């Protein structure tokens, strides 16, 4: 894929395909998870990946992170081809997966320890990132003393602590209650405003996609591929979340994506993802 704005592209996904086999009874079944996926993400842009369950969203994110390898095609971050995990990418999982014996501060420090950062410096960075995500008063708490939303904030601070070029998030708020989820969405908008990080995230929540993203990439399934790309021209900063959600522009964009998603359902995507099409998990 030839990027038209190569100097501003932070992530370039070039004809990525992913195949694997699964056991079905006594037979091996071939699965084409992704087929010829190509698009790029600009510096400082927020891009949402959405689509029916099984369309390969999380698989693609894991390949970008370096946790899985593509069968064919390649991904470049900052002009460097991805061959494995690296400090230029940080990943926030759906569940924070914190070390239970470590405090919030020590959990955020972990990636910096692995990176070889000196103790005094990594402690200062971890404190700074916990302050950034609003946990300045909870640094010494262990995971069993944190709410679900606070754990996700720690996970976000941990990913940001290594100062990645790209922040990847795999349904980071999907397991949280609606009120906590909306609060963290507002936090992501604030953090993006302060850091201008390039962000890619997977979501089934169309409200979340339209609220946060500059572009929403709708993926089709069987095999996973790019179906449509929707520009979200809502002006930034979007700090007044209630005003954004209540605007006609927001409603129209959400309906346009929902309508395209429903077309996939009726075309054979299945009813299993209807909940996601309605903006719920």
UniProtKB/TrEMBL annotation:
InterPro entries: AAA+_ATPase, ABC_transporter-like_ATP-bd, ABC_transporter-like_CS, ABC_transporter_ATP-bind, P-loop_NTPase. Keywords: ATP-binding, Nucleotide-binding, Transport. PROSITE patterns: ABC_TRANSPORTER_1 (PS00211), ABC_TRANSPORTER_2 (PS50893). GO terms for molecular function: ATP binding; ATP hydrolysis activity. The keyword Transferase does not apply. Pfam families: ABC_tran (PF00005). This is ATP-binding cassette domain-containing protein.
């Amino acid at each position: 894929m030839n990027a038209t704005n190569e100097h501003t592209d932070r992530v370039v996904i070039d004809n990525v395909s992913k195949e694997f086999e699964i056991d079905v009874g006594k037979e091996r079944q071939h699965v084409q998870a992704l087929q010829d996926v190509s698009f790029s993400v600009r510096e400082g842009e927020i891009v949402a990946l959405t689509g029916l369950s099984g369309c390969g969203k999380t698989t693609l994110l894991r390949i970008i992170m370096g946790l899985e390898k593509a069968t064919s095609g390649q991904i470049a971050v900052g002009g460097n081809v991805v061959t494995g995990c690296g400090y230029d990418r940080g990943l926030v999982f759906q569940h924070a997966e914190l070390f239970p014996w470590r405090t919030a501060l020590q959990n955020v420090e972990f990636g910096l320890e692995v990176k070889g950062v000196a103790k005094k410096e990594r402690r200062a960075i971890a404190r700074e990132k916990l302050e950034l995500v609003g946990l300045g008063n909870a640094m010494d708490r262990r995971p069993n003393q944190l709410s679900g939303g606070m754990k996700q904030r720690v996970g976000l601070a941990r990913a940001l602590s290594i100062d990645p070029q790209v922040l990847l998030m795999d349904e980071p708020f999907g397991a949280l209650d609606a009120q906590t989820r909306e609060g963290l969405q507002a936090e992501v908008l604030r953090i993006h405003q302060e850091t201008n990080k390039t962000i890619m995230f997977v979501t089934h929540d169309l409200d979340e996609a339209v609220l946060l993203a500059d572009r929403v990439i709708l993926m089709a399934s069987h095999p996973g591929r790019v179906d449509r790309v929707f520009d979200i021209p809502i002006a930034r900063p979007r700090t007044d979340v209630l005003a954004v959600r209540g605007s006609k522009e927001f409603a129209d964009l959400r309906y346009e994506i929902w309508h395209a998603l429903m077309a996939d359902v009726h075309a054979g995507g299945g009813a299993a993802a209807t909940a996601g099409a309605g903006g719920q998990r």
